[in-house]
Amino acid sequence: MAVTLFLPTVLARLADSGTLRSEGDTVGEVVANISGRFPELAPRLRDEKGDPYAFVTFYLNDEDIRFTGSFQSPVKDGDELTIVPAIAGG
């Protein structure tokens, strides 16, 4: 399934684009595809076990994947995946 992935500016520089297209049947497959194509991005999207970080939120069509099955959430053609990292300041 073709999915559009939206990256925040802080991550977009690692992929030379804030919008990427990817294939996969689940969010995890989409993230794995992107991680393979952009190795510098991989450690910022998932941990060493391949799981999502607690401080990086993935939205599949505006739904937080933590409530829809995490990386096992199914995707369909035309879906949009938005990545939002936590930002801390002081």
What name does the CATH topology carry? Answer: Ubiquitin-like (UB roll)
CATH architecture: Roll
Gap from first CA to last CA: 41 Å
The percent range for helix content is 10-25%
Provide the β-strand percentage band.
25-35%
Radius of gyration: 12 Å
Tally of individual helices: 3
Global mean pLDDT: 93
CATH first level:
Alpha Beta
Shape: globular
Q: Say which CATH homologous superfamily is assigned.
A: Beta-grasp domain
Order of helices and strands, N to C? EHEHHEEE
Reported for the largest beta sheet, the result is: 5 strands, mixed
Compute the number of structural domains: 1
Contiguous uncertain segments of 5+ residues: none
Strand order of the largest sheet: 2-1-5-3-4
Sheet/helix structural class: alpha+beta
Count of individual beta strands = 5
Sequence-ordered SSE layout with sheet pairings:
Blueprint: E1 2-6, H1 9-15, E2 19-23, H2 27-37, H3 42-45, E3 56-60, E4 63-64, E5 80-85
Parallel strand pairs: 1-5
Antiparallel strand pairs: 1-2, 3-4, 3-5
What labels would you give this structure?
90 residues; alpha+beta; Ubiquitin-like (UB roll); five-stranded mixed β-sheet
Word description of this protein:
This protein has helices at residues 9-15, 27-37, 42-45, and strands at 2-6, 19-23, 56-60, 63-64, 80-85. With 90 residues, it is an alpha+beta fold. The protein has one domain (2-85): Roll (Ubiquitin-like (UB roll)). Strands 2-1-5-3-4 form a 5-stranded mixed beta sheet, covered by helices on one side. β3 (56-60) and β4 (63-64) form a beta hairpin. The N and C termini lie far apart (41 Å). The mean pLDDT is 93.
